[in-house]
Automatic annotation (TrEMBL):
Statement: the UniProt record of this protein carries the keyword Coiled coil: no
Alphabetized Gene3D superfamilies for the sequence: Metal-dependent hydrolases, Urease, subunit C, domain 1
GO molecular function list: hydrolase activity, acting on carbon-nitrogen (but not peptide) bonds
Recorded superkingdom: Bacteria
Keywords: Hydrolase
The family this protein is said to belong to: Belongs to the metallo-dependent hydrolases superfamily. ATZ/TRZ family.
Protein name: Amidohydrolase family protein
Keyword Hydrolase belongs to the record: yes
Length: 464
């Protein structure tokens, strides 16, 4: 008896698919079918097309399809709407505490929502379909609403820190308040596949052991993650050594919080003992090469990311904040991670393009604990898909799509994007957001925030 074709929502046919499946197959002349929010069929077009009856057909000729990228660390508030305002010649301490923190503290709920929309738009239009935010949101609900409207998948968290640097402060009261606020924020929005609140920390030296332990316990109970900034500069390990007698990762392991639910962002100034502890505990590292270069963190001479990789530490890539990295295009991070250590170690075998591309996809999915849902193009997984337009000079001629994406191309060739089965970018434009209105709103919001912060405009050349 002849099998009746299966109804599907969308069929993308005659496309080159980078599956990231267990065999890492790249399928030419392929077809991928979407049914609801899931991938229902993957294979050669000749095999798949007779099996389905699609409501919508997309001609995939001249395109390469990849899984949606996963951004492990991005500041979606504060920095997108003040892009380019912070001078690029300030040191790490001045950059963070004298510029960025005042910009964050002077945002309204509406301005944070606009900033989040702009960040989501840039991520989607450059191929990122899922992200973990940096834990620096002050107004969760309007931000979550704007992200939902954009159509992106995200994990977000409220600003959380509790260390009393002023001796007159009541440390116990401050810690109790921070833990209570974290518990309330995690419970404030219903969890979903799309937007979920996690117990994220600002990190560095701002969290007490008690806050670390509370965040870790919440994450384990919820099946979530704790991310925290740690050791981009030597200031963090210097403080931990002076105040605990141990380096950060050693101390976190000793207090029982370093495990698979922990993601340490930056992790540039780690020693060999810390690398071994990260591997042993299953903790994840989020590498942000763009901000490291701009911030002069010293990743070339100091970063032990090749050693982490060799030891089995899970590494994700992040773009950090727009005032640090200037773009949310994660493909540029893929280029840098593949390049920097080749040069620093004078060894071209370090982090080949295949490893960098894995960090963009499955590495990010694993870091979020979502490898069963996203990160590859396989039947049953979420339909988070990206079409890259190869009819562009940087994509021609096309011999090796992985080399092309890491060494030649960037997110500007992203033509169409599906998240959770829904087309959110089509023909280079958002289907969810009024882009021109958003740009106008972002400009006004940025002007308002910089005025409220009272920070000077330090452009070196006159604007007339």
């Amino acid at each position: 008896m002849t099998q009746q074709p299966t109804p599907v929502d969308t069929l993308i046919r005659d496309v080159m698919v980078v599956t990231m499946n267990a065999k890492r197959e790249i399928i030419k002349d392929a077809a991928v079918a979407i049914t609801g929010d899931r991938i229902s069929h993957v294979g050669k077009s000749a095999d798949i097309v007779p099996l389905v009856t699609p409501k919508n057909v997309v001609d995939g000729r001249n395109f390469v399809m990849t899984p949606g990228f996963v951004n492990g660390h991005i500041h979606i508030t504060g920095e997108p709407i003040t892009r380019g305002y912070v001078p690029d010649d300030s040191g790490w301490h001045e950059n963070v505490w004298e510029w960025l923190v005042p910009l964050y503290q002077n945002q309204s709920a509406e301005e944070e929502a606009v900033s989040a929309s702009l960040a989501a738009l840039e991520m989607l239009r450059t191929g990122t379909t899922s992200f973990m935010e940096a834990g620096t949101i002050r107004f969760l609900e309007p931000v979550a609403e704007s992200l939902t409207k954009a159509g992106i998948r995200g994990r977000i968290g409220s600003w959380a820190e509790d260390r009393a640097f002023d001796p007159s402060e009541d440390q116990t009261a401050k810690t109790d308040a921070a833990i209570k606020a974290m518990e309330q924020s995690v419970a404030s929005l219903p969890g979903s596949d799309m937007i979920e609140v996690w117990p994220l920390l600002v990190g560095h030296i701002t969290a007490t052991d008690e806050l670390w332990q509370a965040a870790s316990a919440i994450a384990r109970d919820k099946g979530a993650r704790v991310s925290a900034h740690m050791s981009p500069a030597t200031a963090d390990p210097d403080w931990y050594l002076a105040n605990t007698g141990k380096r950060p990762a050693v101390h976190l392991a000793d207090i029982g919080v370093l495990g698979p639910e922990i993601c340490l962002t930056h992790a540039v100034h780690m020693d060999d003992e810390e690398v071994a502890i990260l591997a042993e505990t299953g903790a994840h590292v989020i590498h942000c090469p763009m901000s490291a270069f701009k911030g002069a963190y010293g990743i070339g001479p100091a970063g032990k990311f090749p050693e982490m990789h060799d030891a089995g530490v899970s590494i994700m890539l992040g773009t950090d904040g727009n005032n640090n990295s200037n773009t949310s295009d994660l493909m540029r991070a893929g280029y840098l991670v593949s390049a920097v250590f080749k040069d620093a170690r004078r060894d071209s075998s370090i982090f080949p393009a295949y490893d960098a591309f894995t960090m963009l996809t499955l590495g990010g999915a694993k870091g979020l604990g979502m490898q069963d849902m996203i990160g590859s193009i396989e039947v049953g997984k979420k339909a988070d898909l990206v079409l890259h337009d190869t009819q562009r000079p940087e994509w021609q001629p096309l011999f090796n799509p992985i080399y092309q994406m890491i060494w030649s191309a960037d997110g500007r060739a992203v033509h169409s994007v599906w998240v959770d089965g829904k087309c959110v970018v089509e023909n280079y434009r958002s289907t969810m957001i009024d882009e021109q209105k958003l740009y106008a709103d972002a400009t006004q919001a940025g002007l308002a925030v910089t005025r409220k912060a009272g920070l000077p405009d330090k452009q070196a050349w006159p604007v007339i």
